[in-house]
Amino acid sequence: MGSAEIRSVTYGSAADASLNYLAVGASGSVFKGSDGINWAAVSTAPSVNFNATLFTLSQFIALSSTGGINNIYRTADFVTWTAAVTNPATGQNLNALASNGALVVAVGDNGTIQTSTDGISWTTATSVPTTDHLYGVTYAASGLWLAVGANGVLFTSVDGKSWTARASGTTNTLRSVAASTYLTGYQYVAVGLGGVVSRSVDGTSFAVQTLGTTDFYGVNADPLQILAVGSGGAAYTSSDAVTWTSQTTGTTNKLAGVFGSPTQYIAVGAAGTNISSR
Length: 278
Fold this sequence. Notes:
This protein is mainly β. It has a single domain (6-277), classed as Methylamine Dehydrogenase, Chain H (7 Propeller), CATH 2.130.10. It is 0% helix and 48% strand. The strands form 7 sheets. A 4-stranded antiparallel sheet has the order 1-2-3-4, with no helix packed on it. The relative contact order is 0.12.
């Protein structure tokens, strides 16, 4: 997958009804593949530094660092890429996005949070009590949105528009957040630099632990397990976000993102790294 850093992966149905993984990264790196193992470059994608991608609202949406007027793009066929029509976040790096199937939330630098119901027109969140950079966002089936970022900031929202600050228990930068069902309820897990893991079962009170000196950049949560990835090819798994097991990945490259599909986990990172586990 080239030599640039790959930062994000998603999976969905293209306009021709084919199911594909889409991976995006720095220097206009965009790849697609049907199995998550074999990839083909998407030469028609914009030549920008992509940070995140997600399949939602029957399309693939990708966010990029600023460097031009547009930093939100969408495509349904990997051929035609269209920039957002209304985008108040122009000029900001956008770093992550999440969706509940009806609303998409994108987060970025300087406390930027944008929402959209169609991927075309975007609106600034009504209340975001921070100017810190935001690097991760997720939506839980419990109805709660979570966003995390620099200096350990962590916010929750019930509508994706008005956000409330929570104490994450750390001042380390949090780079990613995920949520899943757990026992009879839910668990919310944020990971970040310096091996920090911040966990909650109610979305209000968070407890922190540290796993060595690994810088975590991505986390995926599902009912079976939580998978966190980071520097030096590190990967840790846990069923409860309390007890963690280090896994062998076969790479020492930084892993910048991880995605869990129904059949496998895919982690991507520095120097075009792409690894999978089934």
